[in-house]
Design a protein that fits this description.
Layout (H helix, E strand, L loop, with lengths): L1 E6 L2 E4 L4 E9 L3 E10 L6 E7 L4 E3 L7 E6 L4 E6 L8 E10 L4 E4 L3 E6 L1
Parallel strand pairs: 2-11
Antiparallel strand pairs: 1-3, 3-8, 4-5, 4-9, 5-6, 7-8, 9-10, 9-11
Length: 118
């Protein structure tokens, strides 16, 4: 079983920065991807950023150039550095970990709230 725990959310003024962390623990197979999604009230969940095992990344159009995803392979931790935050970035940010192999899994954390005030 894989446990995914996010941290680092909070309240920040527009133009500010936050760094989110996501730790994956437990019985984890070969990690294929670690990524961040977000969901605002009344809106669908959307991709923020994803980091594949080979090192390639993908970002949602609205965050390109402002957010950066990175990973500590040893610690099974993925980070999301968020800069130049806007009120429309306000949402619950959820971490997703996908693993393949014998211990394949698709795991989500509970989410961390990010609120950007104008």
């Amino acid at each position: 079983q894989v446990r995914v725990v996010e941290s680092g959310g909070g309240l920040v003024q527009a133009g500010g920065s936050l760094r989110l962390s996501c730790l994956a623990s437990g019985t984890i197979g070969s990690i294929n991807s670690m990524g961040w999604y977000r969901q605002a009230p009344g809106k669908e969940r959307e991709l923020v950023a994803i980091l594949m095992s080979g090192g390639s990344t993908d970002y949602g159009d609205s965050v390109k150039g402002r957010f950066l995803i990175s990973r500590n392979h040893v610690k099974n931790t993925v980070y999301l550095q968020m800069n130049s935050l806007k009120p429309e970035d306000t949402a619950v940010y959820l971490c997703n970990v996908r693993a393949t192999g014998f211990y394949s899994s698709d795991s989500w954390g509970q989410g961390t709230q990010v609120t950007v005030s104008s």
